[in-house]
Every structure is written in C-alpha cells, then in structure tokens.
Amino acid sequence: MESSKILNIGKKLKELRKANDLTQEQIAALLDIPRVNYTRYERGSVRPDYETIIKIADYYDISLDELFERKHY
User: Fold this and answer.
1) N or C: which terminus of the chain carries fewer CB neighbours within 10 A?
2) Helix (H, G, I), strand (E, B) or coil at 33
3) Is 41 exposed, middle or buried, given 0-12, 13-18 or 19+ CB atoms closer than 10 A?
4) 65/73 Cα distance (integer angstroms)
5) What per-residue confidence (pLDDT) applies to 64?
6) What's this model's pTM, rounded to 2 decimal places?
C-alpha cells in the first residue's frame, strides 16, 4: 500500500471520529486498543491490523470500501 493511501486512511479515521464527536481516547476504548495506537493510525505512521479495521468499519456502520475510500469496486 502506498504511503499516501495510508495517510488517507488516517485522514478518514480522523474525519469519522470528529463527525461522531469522539475523542481519540473514547474511540480507542471502544476498539479496545491503546490510545497511542489509535493516534498512530490517524497520523498514518502505523497501519491498523485486520481485526481493528473490521471493528472500525463495524462501529461506524460503513463498508471497508468506504473506510478505504475506494471508489472503484
């Protein structure tokens, strides 16, 4: 995955979190992960694992394609 795509995922995570009026601490707790890990996801310095990606999509009730901002299926 390209670096720019990772940053886009981080941007999308931040966008979703803010749209739902959540802090990083709150979403990290909901996902059962340390806040520092979630912060790294938003910054794009670390990729979430598959389990966490699915938890995020489930929490926000969106598809993985929407989470990854895939326009072409």
Assistant:
1) C
2) coil
3) buried
4) 8
5) 93
6) 0.84
User: For residue range 10-68, what is the model confidence (pLDDT) as tens digits?
Assistant: 999 999 999 999 999 999 999 999 999 999 999 999 999 999 999 999 999 999 999 98
Token pair listed for 53: 């990606």
According to CATH, the topology of domain 21-73 is 434 Repressor (Amino-terminal Domain) (1.10.260)
Domain residue extents for the chain: 21-73
Asked if residues 38 and 27 have their Cβ atoms less than 8 Å apart, the reply is yes
Output the six-digit token pair for 50. Answer: 């598959």
| Nearest by Cα to 13 from 33, 22, 34 | 22
Q: Which residue carries 């966490």 as its tokens? A: 52
| 31: Cα separation from own chain's centroid | 10
Eight-state DSSP code of residue 57: H
